[in-house]
Amino acid sequence: MSSLPPYAGPLERTWFYTYRTICAAIFVFLIVPVFVIIPLSFNELPYFTFTPEMLSLDPAGYSTKWYVEFFTEQSWRDAVSNSFFIAIFATLLSTSVGTVAALGLSSPAMPFRSTVMALLISPMIVPLIISAAGMFFFYTRIGLASTHLGVILAHAALGTPFVVITVTATLVGFDQSLTRASASLGANPTRTFFKVIVPLILPGVISGGLFAFITSFDEVVVVLFVGSVEQRTIPWKMFSGIREEIRPTILAVATLLVLISMLLLTMLELLRRRNERLRGMSPG
Amino acid sequence: MKRLLGTTSLVIGAALVMSASAQAQAVDLTVVSWGGAYTASQQKAYHDPYMAANPGVKIINDDSSAEGLAKLRAQVEAGNVTWDLVDMVASDAITACEEGLVEEFDPDELLANAPDGTPASKDFFPGSLTPGDTNCYIPQIVYSTTFGYRTDMVGGTPPTTIADVFDLKKYPGKRSLEKKPIGNLEWALIADGVPGEKVYEVLATPEGVDRAFAKLDTIKDQVVWWTKGAQPPQLLADGEVVMASAYNGRLFSAIAEKKQPIGMLWDWQVFDLDGWVIPKGTKNLAAVKTYLKFATDTQRLADQAKFISYGPARQSSAPLVGKHADLGIDMKPHMPTDPNNAKTTLNFDYVWWADNRAEMDERFNSWLAK
Amino acid sequence: MAQAEMTGDMMRTADGVPLKLALERALFRSRLRAVMLVAPLFFFLLITFVLPIFDMLFRSVENNIVADILPRTVVAIEAWDETSGELPGEAVFEAIVKDMADGKRDKTLGRVARRLNFEKSGMASLFRKSGRKAPKITEAPYREQLLKIDKRWSDIDLWKLIKREKGAFTKSHFLAAADMQYTPDGSIEMRPENRQIYTNLFGRTLWLSGLITVLCLLLAYPVAYLLATLPLRTSNLLMVLVLLPFWTSLLVRTTSWIALLQTQGVINDLLVGIGLIDDDSRLQMIHNQFGTVVAMTHILLPFMILPLYSVMKTIPPSYMRAARSLGATPFTAFVKIYMPNTVAGVGAGSILVFILAIGYYITPALVGGRTGSLISNFIASFISGSTQNWGLAAALGVMLLAIVLVLYFLYDKIVGINNMKLG
User: Fold this and answer.
1) Which residues of C touch A90 (CB under 8 A)?
2) CA distance C303 to C298
């Protein structure tokens, strides 16, 4: 159905265009909510809708004041630095432990492989409220509640499944003869690891890391339970903002977050291409 | 003579505070409160002046009071208390005190006398230091939950009684109520004709509870339920509802600061207290006590009313309540305790609610889900 | 170990170790190596994730409050025959008076009062009132004096309740989570209808999750098919429209739906603007089930499109061409040939979306209102909301987790966790 064959009858032709229209409508449904907030965030008035001035493209209807508010208000700045601090350390932690585990999981010698895998993926599956509640009580007991370390550990736990999945996926096509070739050419295991394995799995590691990053960066339930005001992140501010006093500053923040996700998406796409290129070169 | 004594005691008091702060090395006090405008008013009236006088003390705000009891309970249970002072409503403070989560104290020992020498136990509103016969609570304010209405959406005759809230014929349109049985059941009965002082007598019977729910049923389809104090003023400002129950301070700020077309309906406003408790196991007990003596004295409580329209819990503070710090409005007529506003008021029966809260919550949630 | 030579009847490696043994050793070493690599993550998750969850869920049966705070009473009441129809003897009354005096002194009485009040309304005030006066009763007759303080102590049901809840474990949280309760005699019955909540709530959660899954499938199928059949260049471009929402913050997307759906929002403004509805009769599309379903369908849609797409991508176009050339109409070919080949993708996507939907918290909390909130919202409110009941929260959590784990198991059987793909 990629294009209409020249011999198509009228019924087929009608269906073809109907189908394309349906698909277009679904794409609109997917993408409009992401983009609608961008113009709204430039609203001069504190409303969540288009004012008549905005619709008539009157420059007076637009303003960047919500962005100014975001960049000047201390609590938002704290939230930004908390979000990045927590997400970066959680990502480093989950990526390193997750990658090492993926190497073990990909070995054919790994015992109880699927059971262990199911356990390691579970943070992605268990409802967040259950994880958050469990962590709330347990972390309070061991003194990790209301600390940055506590939130970082919690987020790292939630991020590891993504690293495990992406890195094992990269290793599925991994050609074991490459390590043997490396060894037979005189490289020791460490050298083999850094010179052969790492370059091959790097795209998987980085994309897993990006997933782990966005998991932490976007997470709100766990941080609400485990953290306190000192750990207040951007999603926390947004969540309480929406629940309490909904201001267009949130739309400005949302717009900036959309830009970040575009950036991440681009990085991921570049990685995918690089990965395909590498695979194309590797034998088998 | 009295004045001289007062001055002397002030000087001695100040000296004591100074020496205490000199002894205490740098202390960080984690103070838990409600966030937003309320924490801001405490910051300006209590924290800032205290930190200016005591450079060794740093007060850190934690806006967790909405989850205050849960987090405090978890901390005490875990034996790992990281909070130093928690702001709570009276009903939570009673629970916390009875479960041994917070410190007990003698108010006259802990708290400052009124400027005329009246001890704290006589100066705070009667019973407010000992809600539910507990001895853990230092109230700061009397607040009320009352109604606001859109002046431009109620026609020529604005609502005057609680019965008007339940009258869809006279005042059609959506209303907003808090998503809890407490307060709503009482108002429903009063609107249904039960005299205010008989409300808990009626509620104590199963038929009384049925009657309250039946009255709420009459407006159920028209109710938008709120869960956070900032929501009802917002709903009124957006014109999403015609009238809403709300904390009087929030309504004041919508009316006076944001100039919204909102009117106050004080009939059968529900009085409640908000105040401090000291978590059991705080690592800075001495520093907290020194801070409390300052932050709950007559002048400080009166100062808070400059920033938010809640009534100070000390009787001696009332005459000192002046004008709003930014707007220059006389704050007295906006206090829930002002005689013009407090013609009909309701006080929660904490004992009844402690007994029946779990059951009423179940019924309420079940009723909501239908 | 590469070179082996024959010595006698046994294969040996160059250094003389039997080959079988050498192979076993090598296998053991690589096993050990694999396990050692996995171990750090395993223990990390055990401590930061698995233990905390078990610890919390254990609260659903844990019941040490009564025995801890009324130690004398639980021993003394052992001898009382609750079927006798008579009040316990003087010894039990003496025990509870002393326990209450201790509890009052240690400030622990409030805990047991609160615990028992969940079972029987009024226990809170009974213990509060009696606890204040209990220290003054120092000698017999205990029963008479306690009954003078409050005549509710002559209620046999109350004593049955204490005897029932004296053990280290309790079923009562699970009963409450299933809308059931004990009768005073200790048998189990449904709660009165006006107090039933959770069975309906679970029903609603399952129904809405199912509805969202079906909607996602209906929307995802045509799109995934289009993406799988278009030339790569075009489909990659359109894929961005799927991936961008996928990578956009959950809160951003929820915020957008609030802006779109609220009464004074974009869609209502649009409808009023084109004259379809009156300004006074704006549609209520948020803070109800409609809002929850629309926003969650949008948020979970990529989780359906991506697995469907990756399955459809593997179906050779020649299948359809073969069917057509054998005389099938396009419709027959699609239904009989193409659709059966996509079952794996449909299964994977549906289970994934359903699992994610059933535990959703943030979106229903923000747009769900009275009728659109789900089980997670109730669990959260029992943990840190105004009425805390951690035992009940844990029991609801166990039930939710059980459903999720069954589905997870199914997913593993159907799709295989190893085949889970992202992005």
Assistant:
1) none
2) 10
CB of C35 closer than 8 Å to CB of A111: yes
**Model pLDDT for residues C162-197, shown as the tens digit of each residue:** 999 999 999 999 999 999 999 988 899 999 998 999
- 3-state SS, residue A143: coil
Residues A80 and A105 in one domain: yes
Q: Does C36 touch chain A (CB under 8 A)?
A: yes
Q: Are residues A220 and A262 in the same domain?
A: yes
CATH code for position A234: 1.10.3720.10
Please indicate whether, in this complex, the C-beta atoms of C250 and A261 are within 8 angstroms of each other: no
Choose the weakest-confidence range: B178-182, B272-276, C331-335: C331-335
- Contact criterion met (CB < 8 Å) for B227 and A243: yes
Residues C245, C240: Cα–Cα separation, whole Å: 9
Distances (CA, A) of B119 to B109, B111, B173, C70: 9, 8, 50, 39
CATH 3.40.190.10: which residues of chain B? 2-136+278-334, 143-272+342-369
Backbone CA torsion sign across B158, B161, B162, B167: negative
- List subunits contacting chain B, requiring 3 or more Cβ pairs under 8 Å: A, C
**Least confident stretch, A19-23, A49-53, B257-261:** A49-53
Instruction: Read off the pLDDT of residues A117-165 as tens digits, 9 standing for 90 and up.
Output: 999 999 999 999 999 999 999 999 999 999 999 999 999 999 999 999 9
- In a shared domain, residues A45 and A138: no
Of C109, C287, C389, Cβ closest to residue B98: C109
Q: What is the ipTM of this complex?
A: 0.91
Does the pLDDT at position C297 exceed 70?
yes
Dihedral (CA of B118, B124, B126, B127) sign: negative
The verdict on A19 and A153 lying in the same domain is no
Residue A218 lies in a domain: yes
Is the pLDDT at B20 greater than 70? The verdict is: no
Q: Which domain holds residue A227?
A: 75-281
What is the CATH architecture assignment of B143-272+342-369?
3-Layer(aba) Sandwich (3.40)
CB–CB contact C369 B225 (8 Å): yes
Interface with chain C: mutation pick from A20, A26, A141, highest number of C CBs within 10 Å: A26
Partners of A229 on chain B (C-beta within 8 Å) are 60-64
- Distance CA(B290)–CA(B111), nearest Å, equals 9
Residue C419, pLDDT score: 67
Q: C249 CB near a chain A CB, below 8 Å?
A: yes
Number of domains in chain A: 2
For residues A47 and A118, state if they share a domain.
Answer: no
Same domain, yes or no: A106 and A26: no
Q: Taking CB atoms and an 8 Å limit, are A229 and B80 in contact across chains?
A: no
What does the alpha-carbon distance between residue C287 and residue A11 come to, in Å, rounded to a whole number? 43
User: Do both A35 and A141 map to the same domain?
Assistant: no
What's the CATH code, domain B2-136+278-334?
A: 3.40.190.10
Give the nearest partner residue to C421 out of A1, A164, A169, using CB atoms: A169
At residue A204, does pLDDT exceed 90? no
Identify whether the C-beta of residue B246 lies closer than 8 Å to the C-beta of residue B146: yes
> pTM to 2 decimals?
0.91
Q: What is the pLDDT of residues A51-78, one digit of tens each?
A: 888 888 888 889 999 999 999 988 899 9
With tokens 């230091």, the residue in question is B129
Say if residues C130 and C149 touch (Cβ distance below 8 Å): yes
A84 and A197 inside one domain: yes
Q: What does the DSSP assignment read for C239-277? A: HHHHHHHHHS-HHHHHHHHHHHHSTTSHHHHHHHHTTSS
Length of chain C: 423
Residues of C within 8 A of B228 (CB-CB) are none
Q: Is the peptide bond before A108 cis (omega within 30 degrees of 0)?
A: no
Which of C37, C252, C422 lies at the smallest CB-CB distance from A162? C422
